[in-house]
């Protein structure tokens, strides 16, 4: 991702850098030599002293005292120099020729001459010009080979000068010669008048002749008038090394060879006046000096669009980093494209990876949320809260996580299935402590059943404190009947079999315990009292559990065995209905199970209240109705109207033995019961040792314990 971003930034920032142009600063003259006189630079081979000039031909004098000055003169002459160029030119200021005539006939004027010992008059940059209305002039040139050269021109005009053409020398007032030979080094100008201005008077009776730079004079009335004050006009001369010498000849004599600098070259001017030196392309400076030619830093001249690299004598335009080309046309480097591609690919990969991780995390979160929701929906929270509020120890009832169950069933392995029904599948499972458990996996959750399930879990937990809640729910009718019969037998024994009748006083489902084979035991004799034989009634403080309490005993405080019978009747109701003796969250008329049962019975709506799980076949129904009738008897308000505990026990035992043994209550329950009970079941909420004498009795704490296993 980072690489990707860096690449993007790199692509954006490729603006051309700004360059500053520096003036060329090169060696002009020899060290310690005057290289300037006023405005005029004095490059070697010119010099003001013998040490500084290369040859006397190039000797110049700088007169500092002249005014206005200083002024530079050629050698010790009066030829003023205004410019010296290393290209081989120099500009001098020679006098012009003039002549003026006074009305009295006197003549005032002079001709002009110029002599170069080693320089040549530039034949292309200068022109010979005559200005006047009555004038003619000759120009005589001495050439290199000493031959003479002469030509002339005349300027005439009429008195009114109406035909004068300003800007061009047509012979009318101004005559001009553009051509002179190329190798003239001596000049002499003679100016004459035809009639001493006696017939013409134009231009103030004056005439002028000069050989000057083309740009120095542009013919017009004004410029002619100005000429009155002008004594000198610039002229271009050529200089070269070794008059009458070629480059080849000069190079042979290396000690006198003027092109001293490295990276300099020699060339011959077209006028054949010797040779000249120049710096090679890419260098600038004075080629006549050692190391005079210096490399030009072309990069300072903004020659490149993007980057620039100066080299010795040349330069290279660079493309932005990552691009290739000549600096003008730049294209992405392949390697960069690869890098870029790799970067993008890497970035995309990272993005995908991140997205995948995020997706997985979200999925996991939503899965956990879903689990949490299911936990909530299935009553997990309610169950937890109830466990906490009722202070049930975690050992006696434990909530398993789905992963616990998965581990126990080897991830719900098909080989672990022990039963299947309409409501779900029952698996055999192993807990970490190697105890075998049955696990029911529901196919669907009916929200209405959740509440019921939780209540059942707690009810059966309290009914059979040490048994698993779900087991209690699915206890078949036969087992319930057996539990009832066995419990009744125990109570009957208490009442009659013992030498002294014992009244339990707190008969309730909590005090009927089951071992692993669902053998019932009656516990908690903390409230029980020995009743002397001669006293059939005992007056005590009313004691017992609300919902099970004998109403007669409550009214009279007279404790008899029939109080236990009443309480047992309520227990029977609990077995029949799967409801608790007292349920506070039910409507008023249903809160007290005994009262509700009696009212339902009165309205002949018994089926309404019975536990669905025991309504199997018709045979059971007969037994159930029998037990319901028995319970009704037990619940008689008058103790005397109730059957004795012995009668109850015998009735139940009779029903149990007479009834057909059929585990099958319904399809679903049958399988579950098989799975629950089939393989030497050792439920994990029951102590693992399976010792019937100890099972579940820790809830009794310090109370007396009567071991009644199997006792009837
Ligand atoms: C230049 O002149 C200075 C003193 O004027 C002198 O010390 C120096 O050596 C001279 N350099 C050369 C190259 O002549
Ligand atoms: C100037 O130098 C050249 C050689 O470079 C030589 O031939 C010539 O005679 C010299 N001229 C003078 C006036 O010293
Ligand atoms: C400089 O010019 C002045 C005035 O023209 C002259 O007197 C003087 O001699 C000149 N100096 C040199 C060195 O030529
Ligand atoms: C002619 O006139 C000029 C002034 O215009 C004067 O300087 C000169 O001396 C005169 N010549 C004669 C011979 O008179
Ligand atoms: C050229 O003219 C000069 C004077 O102007 C003269 O002295 C010389 O002899 C002439 N040369 C030739 C070859 O005629
Ligand atoms: C012009 O004047 C000069 C002297 O000033 C004289 O010698 C000459 O003859 C005159 N020419 C004409 C045509 O008058
Ligand atoms: C020019 O000369 C003529 C006669 O030769 C004279 O008449 C005229 O005034 C002169 N012009 C000037 C401006 O001196
Ligand atoms: C010539 O110069 C003088 C003084 O230097 C000046 O008064 C005059 O106007 C000038 N003439 C022209 C035509 O420039
Ligand atoms: C120039 O050189 C040629 C031959 O190379 C020679 O004939 C001629 O006289 C020379 N001229 C001068 C002015 O040295
Ligand atoms: C300039 O001179 C240096 C030193 O002699 C040399 O190395 C370089 O190649 C020369 N450059 C060119 C363009 O000839
Ligand atoms: C004469 O001057 C012009 C312009 O300054 C220049 O281009 C030309 O090369 C010169 N001629 C010679 C022979 O140097
Ligand atoms: C400078 O380099 C360019 C291209 O690299 C080349 O075309 C050119 O001839 C070189 N110039 C010199 C003086 O070497």
TrEMBL record:
GO-annotated cellular components: plasma membrane
**InterPro entries in the record, alphabetically?**
EGF (IPR000742), EGF-like_Ca-bd_dom (IPR001881), EGF-type_Asp/Asn_hydroxyl_site (IPR000152), EGF_Ca-bd_CS (IPR018097), Kinase-like_dom_sf (IPR011009), Prot_kinase_dom (IPR000719), Protein_kinase_ATP_BS (IPR017441), Ser/Thr_kinase_AS (IPR008271)
Which reaction(s) does the protein catalyse, per the Swiss-Prot or TrEMBL entry? L-seryl-[protein] + ATP = O-phospho-L-seryl-[protein] + ADP + H(+); L-threonyl-[protein] + ATP = O-phospho-L-threonyl-[protein] + ADP + H(+)
Instruction: Report residues binding ATP.
Output: 441
Q: Which stretches make up the EGF-like domain?
A: 295-331
Record's bilayer topology term: Single-pass type I membrane protein
Read off the Gene3D superfamilies from this record.
Laminin, Phosphorylase Kinase, domain 1, Transferase(Phosphotransferase) domain 1
Location in the cell reads: Membrane
The signal peptide here is 1-20
Q: Which GO terms describe its biological process?
A: cell surface receptor signaling pathway
Q: Which SMART domains match?
A: EGF, EGF_CA, S_TKc
Q: Which regions span the lipid bilayer?
A: 340-362
Which residues are in coiled coils?
none
A Pfam match is: Pkinase
| Alphabetical list of PROSITE patterns matching this protein | ASX_HYDROXYL, EGF_2, EGF_3, EGF_CA, PROTEIN_KINASE_ATP, PROTEIN_KINASE_DOM, PROTEIN_KINASE_ST
Its domain of life?
Eukaryota
Which keywords label this protein?
A: ATP-binding, Disulfide bond, EGF-like domain, Glycoprotein, Kinase, Membrane, Nucleotide-binding, Receptor, Serine/threonine-protein kinase, Signal, Transferase, Transmembrane, Transmembrane helix
Q: Cite the Protein kinase domain residue spans from the record.
A: 334-664
For molecular function, the Gene Ontology terms on record are: ATP binding; calcium ion binding; polysaccharide binding; protein serine/threonine kinase activity
Which SUPFAM superfamilies does the annotation name? EGF/Laminin, Protein kinase-like (PK-like)
Name by which UniProt lists this protein = Wall-associated receptor kinase
Task: Provide the species name.
Answer: Sesamum angolense
